[in-house]
Amino acid sequence: MEPLPNSRTEPDGSAVIRFLSYNIRSMRDDTAALARVIAACDPDLVLLQEAPRFFRWRKKLARLAGASGLVILSGGATAAGPALLCSLRATVERTEDVLLPLTPGRHRRGLATAVVRIGGARLGVLSCHLSLDADERHAQAGLLLDRLAGMGVTHAVAGGDLNERPGGRTFRRLGDGLRDCWTAAPWGSEYTFPAVGPDRRIDAVFVTEGIEVLGCGVPLGLPGVAEDDLRAATDHLPVLTALRLPASGD
């Protein structure tokens, strides 16, 4: 497997940025394996789903970030599960945790969002975990698109656990307004769930126009990412994406 490009800033201010999207099941599994997987992927930004939400959740998330060589950017319990981690390469402009409308009897859902600068690039970032219910999931996709449109950025990246395969109407709704990175530049493996014997792609990363997708997929075979760790870390496989963003004029 050809390696993804390493993070770097070009002389013109454009930036190659590595993103990791990962459902970590509230860190109920092997957290040492989880940290090893994240660190080996060497991401600039991590879009988490099912981050800890209850007792001492900030301490648990901080411990994971530290063990992975990262820091907390936003989210966790305040976003009902989605969270963002980042490397020190990112300069944070602002963050916002968004709670989506609650349907009685169902889990609360939310979005972890931020605007950051890396090199000369300015971008919006969003992590999501959409509903198991098809109608609610479709509505949440619309709210996600509205949120991205209101962030005041030219370029944005959104990723997470969609709880839906490609071809579903929610997946199509997101694809109408954004580009699916796996479709644009497949790399590594496709299927993300379950971690043992994966047979479906329900986790994805999307970008707005003007971002070059250099590669996207499950990092099976990436040096330092052991298959035993992937199986032990959580019940999903991560999605690693490399993007090239132009320098921002603002």
Task: Output the keywords.
single chain; 250 residues; alpha+beta; seven-stranded mixed β-sheet; 6 helices; 13 strands; 23% helix
Write the SSE topology.
Elements lengths: L7 E2 L5 E9 L7 H11 L3 E5 L7 H11 L3 E5 L7 E4 L4 E9 L10 E9 L2 E9 L4 H16 L6 E6 L7 H9 L1 E2 H4 L18 E5 L4 E6 L9 H7 L5 E7 L5
Parallel strand pairs: 2-3, 8-9
Antiparallel strand pairs: 1-2, 2-13, 3-5, 4-5, 6-7, 7-8, 9-11, 10-11, 12-13
Question: Explain this structure to me?
Answer:
The chain is of the alpha+beta class and 250 residues long. It has six helices and 13 strands. The chain has helices at 31-41, 57-67, 134-149, 169-177, 181-184, 227-233; strands at residues 8-9, 15-23, 45-49, 71-75, 83-86, 91-99, 110-118, 121-129, 156-161, 179-180, 203-207, 212-217, 239-245. The strands form two sheets. Strands 1, 2, 3, 4, 5, 12 and 13 form a seven-stranded mixed sheet that branches. Strands 6-7-8-9-11-10 form a six-stranded mixed sheet. Helix 1 (31-41) links the parallel strand 2 (15-23) and strand 3 (45-49). Helix 1 packs across helix 6. The model has no long low-confidence stretch (mean pLDDT 96).
